[in-house]
Write a structure and sequence with these properties.
This protein is α/β, with parallel strands linked by helices and 493 residues long. The chain has 2 domains: 219 residues, Vaccinia Virus protein VP39 (Rossmann fold, 3-Layer(aba) Sandwich), CATH 3.40.50.150; 199 residues, DNA methylase specificity domains (Adenine-n6-DNA-methyltransferase TaqI, Chain A, domain 2), CATH 3.90.220. Strands 3-2-1-4-5-7-6-8-9 form a 9-stranded mixed beta sheet. Strands 10-17-13-15 form a 4-stranded antiparallel beta sheet. Strands 12-11-16 form a 3-stranded mixed beta sheet, with no helix packed on it. Helix 4 runs parallel beside helix 5 and helix 11 crosses helix 12. The two termini are 44 Å apart. Bound molecules: S-adenosylmethionine.
């Protein structure tokens, strides 16, 4: 990071949260002579006598040519009361942020505020703020006051002991003139990089991406990739004469009810797949469930049977009505009673959080997807079609069609598995390192390609996709997937 500095060695350099002084040591070794530093924790002893042991947040707005460091990343709710009180009196915090923002936002913004024209900010921090809603004001401030010249994206590489997060290093220049492009260095490895690998850049793949712009998402995608995303979204635009609606996108949330799966609290106690004998009453309280590990490409590969009861019965009744399940469950009783119960008085034979059970009780086919999917070693998601007999467990999210949706559930499943949706989610979804999240909100935000039912060719494409998926599920023959792909190519030209 010190090597990224382009200013001369006499530049005024600030380390706003210097800790043990890792940056100070390297700055000095590289010959920088005019260094200032803040650190709030005066119990961290070190040899740098210029460190001011006070908070950077309320430090004077002195000008600097370079700000470099590793700011503290703390969620508002985890901040100590004194730090919250200090923020409450901070003009910059109150102007740009609120209690949904992270502590390091103010470190970035105040540092830029203090940079001279052409000044450089070089920080290492987590990547999340680049696409969350609450950090929009920070991103806007940044694009309006300068540009990013370099960004190093480490995905899930293990950079710090005991910290599991996805890190970036960025070099930002405060300037009225913006560079057109950003050099993006994508980390190619999964292990901790060595000093030599970092300095020689051999652990990175370098790509050029367009400069971030005001009012637009920060996409870590090349110009060509951005064009593809734009073309995809263009086909998902709402048709309307209403100017407010025209141009906005149809989304999966408009046509699907979405819910996260049910939480038993102790799966092995509820899994009764191995019970040989069951009474009629027990049978009526056994459901088929799918977990993330059961989900394959379009189809599920395994399943389990779980005991699920909603009736209010007491323990004697449970033992009498469900003798086989009772015998299976009783050995787990102690652990079942220790489950986290979401503040409710749950009996040990009941799920702790049936969550969207009502939604899953609808007698309709549904689509299931793992709540989280690692995409480092695959280029598809696992959206799986299942009949109404199947309910999702906690690591699965489930989609059911809303009444007004005319397209078939097969069309929807095929659509969600299409490579264009995969690509869109890679850049626009909630991606942490190489893990894509599929809870309700990110799924609801996926743009949706509706069928124009007035257009016979589109109707035909829809019908071919529907029957091809049915055939694929029966035969697993790739020729049906190729056909589906061909039809989506047509719908997206
Ligand atoms: C992630 S550590 C980084 C330390 C150092 N820059 C390094 O890389 O080793 C963040 C540091 O910020 C300090 N800190 C937290 N709040 C601060 C504040 N308001 N002003 C100055 N330092 C602060 C913490 O005590 C901690 O030492």
């Amino acid at each position: 990071m010190v090597n990224l500095i382009q200013h001369n060695k006499d530049a005024r350099v600030l380390e706003p949260s210097s800790g043990k002084g890792v940056f100070l040591k390297n700055l000095e070794n590289e010959g920088f002579t005019n260094i200032s530093a803040y650190e709030i924790d005066n119990s961290i002893g070190n040899e740098y006598n210029y460190i001011k042991y006070q908070s950077f947040i309320s430090s004077p707005l002195d000008p600097y040519d370079v700000v470099i460091g590793n700011p503290p990343y703390i969620r508002w709710k985890n901040l100590e009361p004194e730090l919250k009180d200090e923020l409450a009196t901070s003009y910059l915090w109150n102007k740009y942020f609120n209690s949904l923002c992270d502590y390091h936002y103010i470190f970035i913004l105040k540092s830029i505020e203090q940079l001279t024209e052409g000044g450089e900010l070089i920080f290492i921090c987590t990547e999340y703020w680049m696409n969350t809603t609450h950090s929009e004001s920070l991103r806007e401030y940044m694009v309006n006051n300068g540009y990013i010249s370099d960004m190093y994206h480490f995905k899930e590489a293990n950079l710090f002991e005991d910290v599991c997060a996805s890190f970036i290093i960025f070099r930002y220049v405060k300037s009225n003139n913006k560079a057109k492009n950003i050099s993006l260095y994508k980390y190619k490895q999964t292990n901790t990089p060595s000093y030599e690998e970092l300095i020689s850049h051999t652990c990175f793949e370098r790509i050029i991406i367009p400069q971030f712009e005001s009012g637009k998402r920060w996409l870590l995608a090349t110009k060509e990739e951005q064009k593809q995303l734009y073309t995809f979204e263009l086909k998902c635009r709402k048709e309307s004469t209403d100017l407010f609606i025209k141009g906005s996108l149809d989304r999966i949330g408009d046509i699907c009810d979405i819910g996260n799966g049910m939480v038993s609290g102790l799966d092995k106690a509820f899994n009764v797949s191995s019970l040989d004998e069951t009474t009629e009453y027990e049978k009526s309280h056994i459901i088929n469930v799918l977990k993330a590990k059961d989900l394959g490409h379009y189809v599920y590969s395994s399943e389990s049977r779980y005991f699920f009861i909603n009736d209010s019965i007491n323990e004697d009744e449970f033992e009498r009505l469900c003798p086989n399940v009772y015998r299976h469950m009783i050995s787990y009783k102690e652990d079942l009673n220790k489950r986290y119960k979401y503040g409710k008085d749950t009996n040990y034979w009941e799920f702790v959080f049936p969550r969207n059970f009502k939604l899953f009780s609808r007698k309709e086919p549904r689509i299931m997807v793992p709540c989280k999917e690692r995409i480092s070693n695959k280029n598809y998601f696992r959206f799986v079609l299942a009949s109404h007999d199947y309910s999702p467990l906690q690591d699965v999210t489930c989609l059911l069609k809303k009444k007004h949706c005319r397209e078939s559930i097969e069309y929807l499943t095929a659509y969600l598995n299409d490579h264009r949706v995969f690509n869109w989610l890679r850049y626009n979804g909630i991606v942490k390192g190489a893990i894509v999240e599929f809870s309700e909100t990110p799924i609801a935000s996926i743009p949706y390609r509706k069928i124009n039912w007035e257009d016979p060719k589109e109707v035909e494409a829809h019908n071919i996709i529907t029957t091809s998926l049915q055939q694929y599920i029966q035969t697993k023959s790739d020729k049906y997937l190729n056909e589906i792909n061909k039809q989506f190519d047509y719908l997206f030209v």
